[in-house]
Write a structure and sequence with these properties.
With 419 residues, the chain is an alpha+beta fold. The protein contains 12 helices and 24 strands. A 5-stranded mixed β-sheet has the order 2-9-6-7-4. A 4-stranded antiparallel β-sheet has the order 14-23-20-21. A hairpin with a 1-residue loop joins strand 6 and strand 7. The two termini are 35 Å apart.
Length: 419
């Protein structure tokens, strides 16, 4: 079995089966009903540990969420997977992988690819190779309850084996990009931490105040007021039934990013009314779009153009003489508002907060001039974050392109000098 990815493989590269260069080992799970099997000092890897690394863009596994005792290990005759093996998820979640930097035990959703000879293969190269084969691996999976690749089928898959020096160079290039992505993510995380801290402080202390007063929502500057959202804004739900043949800018709840409120759909992306089912709400760039379905998702957006949205999104129209829409959006993204909205949601399968409850929420209201200053400070931090987010997206695109070129041999690096 071989993926069509490698149809144009260079003649110097060998074609081998996974079992020719790796020993394969599949784990299992000791009984969770026996307490003395657990909370020991032996790392026990589950697919969750591997997918967590993926989300943080890390390659190497150095800790796990669960640990076994010696008794737990022996109860299932589990083997310890040696360091620098390739751990691949093969059940339900298929094709995610990590390289373990510590000896570990693994569960039944993971197969360890243990190199037969480190002098012939670079594990990091095969880490990246598995990533571009993910769709192929999923296509090989069988099963009704859980999709799974059998150990035998996995072992027979044919993969390229470039000369070791070329493997190392390819791995080095891709890992360098991964490290750049990880550093960018760390910067984004720090900026986001700063943004949250500033937001929380400015929404309660304001700018340059010395005198404060106690209110029903806590201590706020003496000059500020406490008002309900309904005193300064209204829920503006103008219904529309999209017509076939007409184009619309449509935003669904899935198009709003949690926490940041970024609209993930390009503002020039229009769709025909025939593709939009049921009644929607009209919005303009003067509205705040609030996701009322599962309010704990914290989806609050500021549209930059007119359009229509899902009825799970409430268009909130601020009174511009009293409150800036940006200031209102920031308030609605605060953790305390999200917690309050979550406590008010009703419904089991599709929990929502009502318009009436939303309008009753009490907020601190500074003068418009101070709102503008607060918004500008937070916006400047968000602009920094957005620059880094764009940088990350560019790096991710670069990585994908390099993987498809280097791992298939379409572009060679054998003569490239890399330290």
């Amino acid at each position: 079995m071989i993926s069509t990815l490698f149809d144009a493989m260079p003649s110097e590269w060998k074609l081998v089966r996974i079992k020719d260069i790796f020993n394969l080992y599949k784990g299992t799970t000791p009984s969770t009903k026996v307490p003395e099997y657990w909370n020991g000092n032996i790392p026990f890897v589950t697919p969750t540990d591997i997918t967590a690394l993926k989300h943080s863009n890390h390659v190497f596994l150095e800790r796990t969420s669960k640990y076994l005792t010696e008794k737990g290990l022996k109860s299932k005759r589990l083997k310890l997977v040696p360091r620098n093996s390739l751990l691949v998820t093969t059940r339900a979640t298929i094709g995610e992988c990590a390289i373990n930097k510590i000896e570990v035990a693994i569960n039944q959703g993971i197969v360890a690819l243990i190199p037969k000879d480190h002098n012939k293969i670079d594990v990091l190269f095969y880490y990246y190779l598995i990533q571009i084969m993910k769709s192929y691996l999923k296509g090989l999976a069988g099963g009704s309850t859980y999709k799974e690749i059998s150990l035998k089928r996995l072992s027979e898959i044919q993969i390229p084996m470039p000369p070791l020096d070329e493997q190392r160079k390819i791995a080095k290039i891709l890992y360098t990009v991964d490290m750049a992505i990880a550093k960018t993510e760390a910067v984004i995380s720090k900026i986001e931490e700063l943004r949250r801290a500033l937001l929380d402080y400015l929404m309660t202390h304001g700018i340059g105040h010395k005198d404060y007063k106690e209110t029903e929502i806590g201590k706020i500057p003496k000059e500020w007021k406490v008002v309900k959202i309904g005193d300064v804004a209204k829920i503006d739900t103008e219904p529309i039934r999209p017509k076939p043949g007409e184009k619309y800018y449509y935003i669904g709840l899935e198009d709003i990013e949690s926490e940041t409120g970024r609209i993930l759909k390009d503002e020039n992306e229009l769709i025909d009314g025939s593709q939009i089912k049921s009644t929607k709400y009209v919005f303009s760039k003067e509205h705040v779009l609030y996701g009322r379905l599962r309010p704990y998702l914290n989806k609050v957006a500021l549209p930059t153009r007119d359009g229509i949205c899902s009825t799970d999104i409430l268009p909130v129209l601020p009174n511009k003489n009293l409150i800036l829409r940006e200031y209102l959006a920031y308030l609605m993204r605060l953790p305390r508002f999200v917690e309050w909205a979550t406590s008010r949601m009703k419904g089991t399968n599709h929990p929502r907060i009502s318009s009436r409850d939303l309008l009753e929420y009490k907020i601190p209201l500074p003068p418009i001039d101070e709102q503008k200053k607060i918004v500008e400070i937070i916006s400047s931090v968000e602009r920094l974050r957005d620059i880094e987010l764009q940088k990350k997206e560019q790096l991710m695109a670069l990585k994908t392109q390099l993987m498809n070129l280097l791992l298939t041999g379409k572009v060679r690096v054998k003569d490239l000098s890399i330290n």
